[in-house]
Structure formats: structure tokens, C-alpha cells
Design goal:
alpha/beta, five-stranded parallel β-sheet, 11 helices, 5 strands, 10% strand, globular
């Protein structure tokens, strides 16, 4: 059961394609069934690196996990007209973390909670440190298994882009997509959403390959980290990918340009 309409007017985006893919999965139906029960609160857990953490680079503005809290606790009202005021959103992201590093702290950052949904966002630091793709993929698969063992719904996310557009970055995003397909996990494809915007903007000075587009500069604070505008895009992509888009949402209608 889809709870709301896509914010209008809205052009089709890669997130809409991802939403159509997600809607075929059992976890999507389970998620929307849980959301329709407004009297039963949910715990949403974010795990990831500095981009999830949202420290420093947003300069005091909300990060995408905080935007998500505004959407589900205030803007979203199921058919009964009740807000999900008792939902809890926990951000356990840690600056500098990798998928493999997270496993050493999983008891504290994941397993002590009783989440209903866990958003998993790794890949930026794994790529920067050139962790082997096979190792990265195994670590993500272990995290997904841990989430399922808790009875929660895992949501895999591909990373946002970087200003340098390093050639190895797309492989990490593709590894996440492939794991999501194999494990039938909900996906939020930030990489594709950012690429769509980057492809529509004038090419920066220098040569890049289509497989490694650089991030739009206005969405970034430095090479790796989105600024407040970038986090707005991430929140929008997450919401549209999961089909959770309250009509006339102030959050989802925030501009992506100053």
C-alpha cells in the first residue's frame, strides 16, 4: 500500500526507477504495511560513514538523516490522519568508517537497538582506502545478515559522487547494486541520482569518463562530503526510492541551489 503521492510537480528521476524496482520486493510491502499502522511506532537506524554522520560539512544545516526524521515524524500522515510522533530516528554514522570497520563496532551501533529499518551507507572511505571490492562486498553482506537477524528491514545505499570523479568509484556502487539484487534488499541509488544531475550540467574543465562523473560542485563541501544542498538531494532520493513522499512536503521541496 503506497501511503502518499510523489511531490508534484516532479520530473522522473533515477529514484523513480529504483522505487519501481523496490516495489516488487517483499520488504517494500512489509515497510508500507508497518507505516500504515500509525499507532505502532517504528525505529529507523542509520549506519554509515561521515556522510551519514553529517558532521562539519553541512555547516549547521540538517543532514539527510535529520531530514528523514522530519519527514516520518511530522510530514507523513497515513490514511488515519495521525502523525508518527512516536517514531525514533537514530543516526549511528561515524566519520571515517568503512563497511569492514563497522563490523568491529556492530554490537554498539546496531545490535543493541531493536530497529525496524536500517539504512546502510558505506563506500566512500572503502574506495578512498582502496579496499578490495570482494572484501567490501562480504562486509556489506554480513551487515545485511545482521540486520535481518534482528528482524529489521535493511536498505542499501550507493554513495554520492566525489568532485574528483575517481575512476574506481563506480565499481563500489555497482557492487552495492548487485548485492541488493542478489539479497533482495531495498536500494537507494544515490550514485545514479547524482549522476543524472551531473550529466545535465556543463562539463568541468578537464577530461572525465562517463563512468566516473564528478559531483556537481554546488552540492559539495569538499571532494568527498556533500554540503547541505547535497544532503537535501540525498533525503529526496531516499524518500522517492521508498515511495514515502508526503504531498506538499516542505522538506522534499527544498531547493537544490542557493
Amino acid at each position: 500500500m503506497v501511503l502518499s503521492l510523489i511531490v508534484a510537480p516532479a520530473l522522473a528521476t533515477p529514484a523513480d526507477d529504483t522505487q519501481a524496482r523496490n516495489a516488487t520486493l517483499p520488504d517494500y510491502a512489509t515497510l508500507h504495511k508497518q507505516l500504515a499502522q500509525a499507532d505502532t511506532p517504528m525505529l529507523w537506524l542509520f549506519v554509515g560513514d561521515s556522510i551519514t554522520h553529517g558532521c562539519l560539512h553541512t555547516h549547521g544545516y540538517r543532514n539527510f538523516a535529520e531530514h528523514w526524521m522530519e519527514i516520518v515524524k511530522w510530514e507523513l500522515k497515513p490514511e488515519q490522519g495521525k502523525r508518527r510522533s512516536n517514531d525514533i530516528v537514530i543516526n549511528a554514522g561515524v566519520s571515517g568508517e568503512t563497511a569492514t570497520g563497522f563490523l568491529s563496532h556492530a554490537a554498539w551501533r546496531l545490535q543493541q537497538f531493536r530497529p525496524h529499518v536500517v539504512f546502510i551507507n558505506f563506500g566512500i572511505n572503502d574506495g578512498t582506502r582502496h579496499h578490495e571490492l570482494a572484501t567490501f562486498r562480504r562486509s556489506l553482506q554480513t551487515i545485511v545478515a545482521m540486520v535481518r537477524a534482528l528482524g529489521a528491514i535493511p536498505v542499501l545505499q550507493t554513495p554520492s559522487l566525489t568532485l574528483a570523479g575517481e575512476s574506481y568509484r563506480p565499481a563500489y556502487a555497482q557492487a552495492i547494486r548487485e548485492l541488493a539484487t542478489e539479497q533482495q534488499v531495498l536500494l537507494v541509488d544515490h550514485t545514479a541520482a547524482w549522476e543524472a544531475i551531473a550529466a545535465a550540467e556543463p562539463a568541468p574543465t578537464g577530461t572525465t569518463t562517463p563512468a566516473a562523473l564528478p559531483a556537481p560542485r554546488h552540492l559539495m563541501n569538499d571532494n568527498l562530503h556533500p554540503n547541505a544542498l547535497g544532503h537535501r538531494l540525498m533525503a529526496r532520493t531516499l524518500a522517492r526510492s521508498l515511495g514515502i513522499t508526503p504531498p506538499q512536503s516542505p522538506t522534499l521541496n527544498l531547493p537544490l541551489h542557493n
